[in-house]
Design a protein that fits this description.
Strands 5, 6, 7, 9 and 10 form a five-stranded antiparallel beta sheet that branches. It contains five helices and 19 strands. Helices cover about 20% and strands about 35% of the residues. With about 300 residues, it is an alpha+beta fold. The chain is flat. It has two domains: about 120 residues, Immunoglobulin-like; about 140 residues, Immunoglobulin-like (Sandwich), CATH 2.60.40. Keywords: Signal. This is Lipoprotein.
Length: about 300
C-alpha cells in the first residue's frame, strides 16, 4: 500500500507545479531562449537615446535612437514614447532591425505637451532576439532613455511658453517685407503685429528680437523692443528695421533658419524664453531678395 506523502511535501509539489504552469503561460525565458530578457525596465543589448536637432524643432519631431550593443540581432516590433508631459499617441509599429553594432534613428511626430507635468520619459518596446525567432517570442520593457541634452524638458518648456504667449497676445509676422530704395541703398522693415487678448489674466513682455544667421537690426545685433502687453490693450505694430547680418551668397544658398525670428519673451505666469516665429513663403522670398539686392549680389 503506497505511503501517503507528508502534508509539507504535498504543498511543495503544488507550488512547484504552479510555478511551472505560470512560466509556460507567460512565455518566460529559460537560459539560452531566443527571446530577449526584460529585466528592470531594460532589454539586454539595447540602448535608447532621445534628442532633437535644430531642424527638428520647427517640424515638431523627436528623434529616438536605438542601438544594439549586444552580440545578437534584435528586432523591435513596436515602440512607443510615453511621458506625462506629452499627450499619448507617439507610436511606431514598423519593425526596426538591428544587427550587433547597429544604430537607427527613428523619428516620432510630437504630440501636444501637457504643461506643468514632469518630463519623465520611457520608451515602451516589444523586442525579439536572434535570426530565427517568431512573432510570439517578443519581450516587453519600458526602457528609460538617455537624454543628454535635456530634450524632453526643453520641448515642454518651449511648448508651454508658446501656449502662455498665445493666451496673452497674438504675435504675427507680416505677409510681405516693407522696402524702400533700390540696390545697395535699399532699406527694409518687418512690421510685426501684436494683438492682445480681449480678456484674461496673463500679461506678456517682449524684451527683444534676436538676430539670425541671415539678418539683424539696422543698428546691429538684436532689435530691442521692451513692449508690455496686457489683455484689452489696443493692437500695435513693432517695426524691425532689417539689414543683412553679412553679405555672402552662400548664406542664402545654405540657409535653413535665417528667416525664423527669435522673440525673447516673458509671461506673468512665470514662463520665459525664446519664441521662434517662422516667416511665411512670401516674406521669406522677400527677405532673400532684399538681402541679395542690398549686398549687391544680383
Amino acid at each position: 500500500m503506497p505511503r501517503a506523502r507528508p502534508a509539507g511535501a504535498n504543498a511543495l509539489a503544488v507550488v512547484v507545479a504552479a510555478l511551472v504552469l505560470a512560466g509556460c503561460a507567460t512565455g518566460a525565458s529559460a537560459p539560452g531562449d531566443a527571446g530577449p530578457e526584460a529585466v528592470g525596465g531594460t532589454i539586454r543589448g539595447l540602448s535608447v537615446e532621445v534628442r532633437q536637432g535644430r531642424f527638428d524643432v520647427p517640424d515638431r519631431v523627436l528623434v529616438v535612437s536605438f542601438a544594439n550593443d549586444g552580440e545578437e540581432r534584435l528586432v523591435i516590433d513596436r515602440a512607443e514614447v510615453v511621458s506625462p508631459a506629452l499627450e499619448p499617441g507617439m507610436t511606431r509599429s514598423r519593425p526596426i532591425e538591428l544587427d550587433p553594432g547597429d544604430r537607427l534613428d527613428a523619428r516620432f511626430p510630437l504630440t501636444a505637451s501637457v504643461c506643468d507635468a514632469a518630463p519623465d520619459t520611457t520608451v515602451d518596446v516589444l523586442v525579439r532576439r536572434g535570426p530565427d525567432v517568431g512573432a510570439d517570442d517578443g519581450r516587453r520593457a519600458a526602457v528609460v532613455p538617455s537624454d543628454p541634452y535635456d530634450t524632453m524638458a526643453r520641448i515642454n518648456d518651449r511648448d508651454c511658453l508658446a501656449d502662455s504667449v498665445a493666451a496673452a497676445a497674438s504675435i504675427v509676422l507680416p505677409d510681405r517685407l516693407r522696402t524702400t530704395g533700390e540696390g545697395t541703398d535699399a532699406r527694409a522693415v518687418i512690421d510685426v503685429g501684436v494683438e492682445p487678448a480681449a480678456s484674461g489674466d496673463l500679461a506678456l513682455e517682449i524684451t527683444q528680437v534676436l538676430g539670425t544667421t541671415l539678418i539683424g537690426s539696422e543698428a546691429g545685433g538684436a532689435w530691442p523692443v521692451g513692449l508690455d502687453v496686457a489683455a484689452g490693450d489696443p493692437a500695435t505694430t513693432v517695426e524691425l528695421p532689417v539689414r543683412p547680418a553679412r553679405c555672402d551668397a552662400h548664406a542664402i544658398a545654405d540657409d535653413k533658419r535665417g528667416t525664423i525670428l527669435p522673440f525673447e519673451v516673458r509671461t506673468s505666469d512665470g514662463r520665459s524664453g525664446v519664441l521662434e516665429l517662422p516667416s511665411g513663403d512670401a516674406l521669406k522670398a522677400d527677405l532673400y531678395a532684399y538681402y541679395a539686392e542690398r549686398c549687391g549680389l544680383d
